[in-house]
Write a structure and sequence with these properties.
Layout (H helix, E strand, L loop, with lengths): L2 E5 L3 E6 L4 E6 L5 H18 L3 E5 L9 H18 L4 E5 L4 H13 L7 E3 L2 H9 L14 E7 L4 E7 L5 H26 L3 H11 L4 H8 L3 H14 L5 H5 L6
Parallel strand pairs: 3-4, 4-5, 5-6
Antiparallel strand pairs: 1-2, 2-3, 7-8
Helix pairs in contact: 1-2, 2-3, 3-5, 6-8, 7-8
Length: about 250
C-alpha cells in the first residue's frame, strides 16, 4: 500500500513501504520552475524516508535540462543521497521526448554521484528490476537494436525507429549524444575545412592516420620541410593548437 507524500498538478511523490521505494511522478514538466520545484519536494521526502530505491516516472517529462540544471541536480540531490549510502538503485520510466530524456541521462553520466540508473518502458519492468537482488546491467548491449524506417510522403521526410531493451537505452543515448555533437562540430567548422587545398586535405588525412613527416614526404614525393610547412598551414587554417583538436577534423574525411 503506497503512501502519498506530496501532490501538485505537476508532480507527485509516493512511498511504497513494503518495497522501500520512493516514487516521483512528473505529471507534467515543461519549464525550469516546474522541474526545480519537483526536485526540491523530492529531496524533502527523500530525507524523511531514506529509501532503498528511488523510482521516477518521466513518461510526461518534456523539459530539456540545461548543463546548469544537471549540475545542480547532482549537487543538490544525487550526490548527497549517494553519500548517505542508503539508496541502491534508481529506476526511470522513459519520456517520449528523446532530447529531454538525454538531458536526464546526462545528469548521471557527468555527475559525481556513483549512480547508474535503469531505464524502462513500463512500471512493472522497473519495479521488478528495482527489487531484484542482482543488478544485471551489462556495459554493452547483448543484441543489436531493431531499426525500421517510416516514410512520410506528404512531408517528404523519413522517421527512423529503433527498438531495444530498456536497459540498453543509456548505451544508445550516449552514442546519439555523440552523433549530435559530431553534427554540431561539422556545421560549425565546415567553413574552416573548405579553406584547405586538396593537397592539405590529403596531408591532414595522413596525419590523422598516424603518419610522421618523413613517411608523408616519401609517399607524396616531397621534402619533409614541405610537409612541415603544410602542417603549419593546416593548423593555422583550422584554428587548431594541438593534435587532439586536429583529430576532430577527421569527421570531414
Amino acid at each position: 500500500m503506497s503512501q502519498n507524500l506530496y501532490k501538485t498538478d505537476a508532480f507527485s511523490i509516493e512511498y511504497i513501504p513494503g518495497a522501500d521505494i520512493l516514487k516521483g511522478d512528473f505529471l507534467k514538466c515543461k519549464t525550469s520552475d516546474e522541474y526545480v520545484s519537483a526536485i526540491r519536494a523530492f529531496k524533502e521526502a527523500y530525507e524523511r524516508v531514506l529509501p532503498r530505491y528511488t523510482f521516477w516516472d518521466n513518461t510526461k517529462f518534456g523539459h530539456i535540462l540545461t548543463p546548469e540544471e544537471q549540475k545542480w541536480t547532482d549537487a543538490f540531490l544525487n550526490y548527497p543521497g549517494a553519500q548517505k549510502g542508503v539508496t541502491e538503485k534508481v529506476g526511470i520510466l522513459v519520456s517520449q521526448d528523446i532530447l529531454a530524456m538525454m538531458s536526464v541521462y546526462e545528469i548521471f553520466e557527468v555527475g559525481k554521484a556513483p549512480l547508474r540508473p535503469g531505464f524502462f518502458s513500463t512500471e512493472n519492468q522497473a519495479l521488478e528490476w528495482l527489487t531484484q537482488k542482482e543488478t544485471p546491467v551489462a556495459p554493452l548491449p547483448n543484441s543489436k537494436p531493431l531499426i525500421a524506417v517510416d516514410w512520410d510522403a506528404d512531408k517528404a521526410k523519413a522517421v527512423i525507429r529503433m527498438e531495444m531493451d530498456a536497459l540498453d537505452l543509456p548505451y544508445y543515448l550516449h552514442r546519439f549524444k555523440r552523433f549530435l555533437s559530431d553534427h554540431d562540430f561539422l556545421m560549425e567548422h565546415l567553413r574552416l575545412f573548405k579553406e584547405l587545398t586538396r593537397r592539405e586535405r590529403k596531408i591532414l588525412s595522413m596525419v590523422i592516420n598516424g603518419l610522421n613527416n618523413g613517411e608523408i614526404a616519401e609517399q607524396l614525393f616531397i621534402s619533409s620541410e614541405t610537409v612541415k610547412t603544410h602542417r603549419k598551414n593546416i593548423m593555422r587554417k583550422l584554428n587548431c593548437s594541438s593534435y587532439g583538436e586536429l583529430l576532430r577534423f577527421g569527421l570531414f574525411l
